[in-house]
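Notebook entry, structure prediction.
Reason for the run: the old model in the group folder had no record of what sequence produced it. Starting over properly, with the input documented here first.
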Amino acid sequence: MLDTDTSLAEVLADVNADLRRCDWLAALGDETQRKIIALMLFAADHPDWAWIQFYTYLGSMTPPRIAELRGVSQSNVRRLLKLTVPTEIYDRLPPVE
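New structure, fully documented this time:
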């Protein structure tokens, strides 16, 4: 369970440990960690985008249902589903050491 005292490094280490425990072919690589951090930064500035992505991919909900839950128009949901994380965010992150 995630609590307020959990750092990003601990979360990434937990994900990495879970992948290893499941005999995943590769550990969580440095570039993948940077992508996760870029997604988190983008989601922090775009909460509707984050929730819509969550409802779509983890909740398997349709755009009309998401629009109803979030209180936004269906066209806004469709627009946010097409929105991708800008590469500038990823490019500005320091390398993982």
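Summary: DSSP finds six helices and no strands in the chain.
The old model has been moved to the deprecated folder.
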